[in-house]
Design goal:
Strand content of chain A: under 5%
CATH architecture of chain A: Orthogonal Bundle
Distance between the termini of chain B: 31 Å
Structural class of chain A: mainly alpha
Number of strands of chain B: 12
Oligomer: heterodimer
CATH superfamily of chain A: ABC transporter involved in vitamin B12 uptake, BtuC
Number of domains of chain B: 2
Mean pLDDT of chain A: 88
Largest sheet of chain B: 6 strands, mixed
Strand content of chain B: 25-35%
Mean pLDDT of chain B: 89
Radius of gyration of chain B: 19 Å
Shape of chain A: globular
Largest sheet of chain A: none
CATH topology of the largest domain in chain B: Rossmann fold
Number of strands of chain A: 0
């Protein structure tokens, strides 16, 4: 039997991380920049690493991690792909290389200075089973800010999702709205990293949205379904892992992957039904 | 003098040291349908993008709907763009695109509605009106990524028109379409102009794409204007032969134009 008092924040954290990643995934996968999650994870890691080198530790590392992730998001948002003659993914690759290089340079310096890098490494891998109510409150705050932004700028984000260049040409303030969204994305992901880790976030961004794209039409429906699939992956994965005594991170990733397969199968059956 | 829909004075657009566009003077009246023609890489799309403020001239002035682009800041340029409907040459073709045809047309109302406001019932009525006028009602709830190329083109034209624009910029609106769809798009442009008297600037490669309302053609070669006038005056047999290097003749009939193999031009 599960000790609900102990595991409730873990379940809430898993569901929240899944739901917020599902919302983000609709736009991130729709814009074909799934690599953003990994890029932001390394930018946050680089921030945390240098924060640690400056003497910060434990929960204090969240602030430099946030700064690193948000600066990277700002750079990505402000680069106009048409003016720079670069695809978003090319810009992401450059930012990923730079932030990863910085992070590993910093980790190397820990060794030279004889300091422990355990705190910063846990940011990249996360630890869902150690999620506490203080973490859940942070995740809830980030999710609420993200949801409010998506509701307020829904029609602009929908236009950008269709084509950022066309949105700009139609007189929509696409760069401002998209940059704001990317900064909130960076903040939400960084807060979630502590709980689920940068690598699991990648699956939770891509898989729920990919499953929703198979089953729903219309931006609003896809958004809701993707958030629901994300929450189901986070919560369901944890419950399956708890009852089978398997590693929760792996089960969450596998469940979200299974949802994509199931959605593709349902879509295929719906197409062939009279 | 009648007011200008758009005007270029001594405009040069460069990419590094390469000159993309070098225009002494071009002007189109309000409510006119003007076609911009010429070989690949002549500078047609650059001119269109310059009119939208998406390509910045290194010198000269561009005036669109009474506004001189050089003097406009970001917000003023965005306001001007809301008065211009733009149909780009390349359409988004991602299979992950979750938008329905109706949602894509609604993108045309987005900037008009303004930030912090949802689309009103009136905005959606305008969207539905354009779906109806362009015969897209049956496709309204289909995914944009899953309708045919011709239907996608019509959707993008409906999106541009839902903006309630004063100027419509069409960049090769019949690219990659079969003959049937090409004719439907030409008819659509002709009908839209007849119904709304909107100013149109049309970029195309083929004479067959010119609607009867188009009485002004600008021929561009290597970034410079090489001829302007009516389609009959610009596309003489000699010029067509020089441009395309083949034995071709032009046929001009009932306001429509075509290029066919062999002999001299026919009126």
């Amino acid at each position: 039997m599960l000790d609900l008092v102990f595991w409730a924040p873990v379940m809430a954290g898993g569901a929240l991380a899944g739901a917020s990643s599902g919302v983000l995934g609709t736009f991130i996968l729709g814009m074909r920049i799934p690599f953003l999650g990994i890029c932001v994870a390394h930018a946050a890691l680089a921030g945390a690493v240098f924060g640690g080198l400056c003497g910060l530790e434990g929960h204090q590392l969240l602030w430099p991690a946030l700064a690193g992730a948000m600066l990277t998001a700002l750079a990505l948002g402000l680069v106009n792909p048409q003016r720079a003659h670069l695809d978003d993914n090319t810009v992401l690759s450059f930012l990923f290389s730079a932030t990863m290089g910085l992070a590993f340079l910093g980790i190397g310096l820990y060794g030279i200075l004889g300091k422990s890098d355990n705190d910063v490494r846990s940011l990249l891998w996360g630890s869902l089973n150690f999620c506490r109510w203080s973490d859940v409150r942070l995740m809830l705050g980030a999710f609420a800010a993200l949801a409010a932004y998506v509701v307020v700028f829904f029609k602009e984000l929908r236009a950008i999702l269709f084509s950022r260049a066309d949105a700009e040409a139609a007189g929509i303030r696409a760069t401002a709205v998209w940059t704001g969204f990317l900064i909130l994305t960076a903040a939400t992901l960084t807060v979630n990293f502590q709980t689920v880790g940068g690598l699991m976030i990648y699956s939770l961004i891509c898989n729920p949205a990919a499953a929703a794209f198979q089953l729903a039409r219309g931006c609003r429906r896809v958004l809701m379904l993707s958030a629901a699939f994300g929450a189901v992956s986070g919560l369901g994965g944890f419950l399956i892992a708890a009852f089978t005594d398997l590693p929760s991170g792996a089960v969450i990733v596998l469940l979200s992957s299974a949802l994509v397969g199931l959605a593709a199968l349902i879509r295929r059956l719906m197409r062939h039904s009279p | 003098m009648t007011p200008a829909a758009w005007e270029l004075r001594a405009v040069t657009v460069q990419a590094g040291h390469r000159c993309l566009l070098d225009i002494l003077h071009l002007r189109a009246e309000v409510s006119s349908v003007v076609a911009l023609m010429g070989p690949n890489g002549a500078g047609k799309t650059t001119l269109l993008r310059a009119c939208l403020g998406l390509a910045t001239p290194t010198r000269g002035d561009i005036t669109v709907l009474g506004e001189t682009l050089r003097t406009l800041g970001g917000p003023a340029l965005a306001r001007l763009r809301r008065r211009i409907g733009y149909v780009p040459q390349l359409l988004p073709a991602r299979s992950e695109l979750p938008l329905t045809v109706r949602e894509v047309v609604a993108v045309g109302r987005t900037a008009r509605a303004g930030l912090f406001r949802r689309l009103s019932r009136q905005d959606w009525q305008i969207v539905d009106q354009w779906l109806d006028r362009l015969d897209l009602v049956a496709l309204a709830n289909r995914a944009f990524s899953q309708v045919s190329g011709g239907e996608q083109r019509k959707t993008i034209i409906a999106r541009a028109m839902a903006q309630d624009p004063e100027l419509l910029l069409l960049d090769e609106p019949t690219a990659n379409l079969d003959l049937g769809w090409r004719e439907r798009i030409v008819e659509t442009i002709e009908t839209l102009h007849a119904q709304t008297r909107i100013s149109v600037l049309l970029v195309c490669h083929e004479l067959e794409v010119l609607p009867p309302a188009c009485r002004h053609v600008i021929l561009i070669e290597s970034g410079r204007v090489s001829a302007t006038g009516s389609p009959e005056a610009v596309f003489t047999a000699e010029r067509v032969r020089r441009l395309y290097g083949a034995a071709l003749r032009t046929v001009h009939q009932e306001g429509r134009h075509a290029v066919v193999p062999g002999g001299a031009s026919h009126a």
